[in-house]
Amino acid sequence: MMTYSRSIPFALLALFGSSGLAQTVKGPEFNKPDGGPPASYFAAGSSIPVAALQSAAAKASTAVPDATYPINGDKGAKKVTIHSDWTKFSEGAAYVWVADMDVDCDGLDSNCKGNPDGQPQTNFGALAAYEVPFFVIPDRFGTKYAKELPGNNVGAVICDGKMFYGIYGDSDGDTPQVIGEASWLMARTCFPNDNLNGNSGHGNPDVTYILFTGDDAVLPKSALNKNYVTNFTTLRSMGDKLVTALAKNLKLSGGGDSGSSPSTTTTASGSGSTGSCEWEGHCEGASCKNGDQCSGQLVCKSGKCAPV
Ligand SMILES: *[C@@H]1O[C@H](CO)[C@@H](O)[C@H](O)[C@H]1NC(C)=O
């Protein structure tokens, strides 16, 4: 296996190029508490200026009606506001807020650990919380702004310095309605060492949520069914495109890799200083902070993706 593991991916690459076949899935194969899709399937590209976006998000200040919610049901819980400063852009328009991250398992995996009150449905289907990186918004907000947020809108989450893409898959209708929840997969990928579950979330309100608005930001049916994300390449390329447009509107620059272009549709062989591989922009030589940001079996060595 050691001998062949490097040549096989390249042979496949030659056959399929960057068509994304490698990250097209059926879904059930990843519907396991500890066997969900790897972080690399929904991580932001290395050209995204994650830290700059996080700082910009912290400065957003414009509130729309019905935008403020507590982060949990406790008396005196911190309240968080969903900001609309970024909703007027023609491309990359988004709502943004900073909150904690509790674990939601509604849908197919509602019996997840620590989740006695799970519901079998999510707002737009019955998503599998072990397989789908989704996040949750308060129901009142989703209902009031349903025209901009038709459901399954792509969003980006910045947690612990990393950025992942997910979809707006569910809403919270508790009393009171709370903010700061994401699927089992998203929460445990954000904070892999904390054994998060339905009854144990990430309590610090230090997670940035960016939710893209409009029909163009909705993950299409070709990449998602009632239960599963079926094409992670679509999720990632939509996410990179929307976030890149947003960063441009905010005049942010300085992503992880000044050499790589944020383009999402190029050919397999069209790489410059960085090598080609199945996850474009994350190949040998691409900038990285950790191995999750490198394609396949590559690891992160001295800030660059490199062979083991
Ligand atoms: C998956 O998505 C990518 C990007 O949107 C697309 O190029 C590819 O054809 C899709 N794969 C399948 C099997 O639909």
Automatic annotation (TrEMBL):
<dbReference type="GO" id="GO:0005576">
    <property type="term" value="C:extracellular region"/>
</dbReference>
<keyword id="KW-0964">Secreted</keyword>
<feature type="compositionally biased region" description="Low complexity">
    <location>
        <begin position="259"/>
        <end position="274"/>
    </location>
</feature>
<dbReference type="InterPro" id="IPR009939">
    <property type="entry name" value="Chitosanase_fungal"/>
</dbReference>
<feature type="region of interest" description="Disordered">
    <location>
        <begin position="253"/>
        <end position="274"/>
    </location>
</feature>
<comment type="similarity">
    <text>Belongs to the glycosyl hydrolase 75 family.</text>
</comment>
<protein>
    <recommendedName>
        <fullName>Endo-chitosanase</fullName>
        <ecNumber>3.2.1.132</ecNumber>
    </recommendedName>
</protein>
<keyword id="KW-0119">Carbohydrate metabolism</keyword>
<keyword id="KW-0326">Glycosidase</keyword>
<dbReference type="GO" id="GO:0016977">
    <property type="term" value="F:chitosanase activity"/>
</dbReference>
<comment type="function">
    <text>Chitosanase catalyzing the endo-type cleavage of chitosan, the deacylated form of chitin. Chitosanase may be crucial in the degradation of the deacetylated portion of chitin in the fungal cell wall.</text>
</comment>
<keyword id="KW-0378">Hydrolase</keyword>
<keyword id="KW-0624">Polysaccharide degradation</keyword>
<dbReference type="GO" id="GO:0000272">
    <property type="term" value="P:polysaccharide catabolic process"/>
</dbReference>
<keyword id="KW-0732">Signal</keyword>
<dbReference type="Pfam" id="PF07335">
    <property type="entry name" value="Glyco_hydro_75"/>
</dbReference>
<feature type="signal peptide">
    <location>
        <begin position="1"/>
        <end position="22"/>
    </location>
</feature>
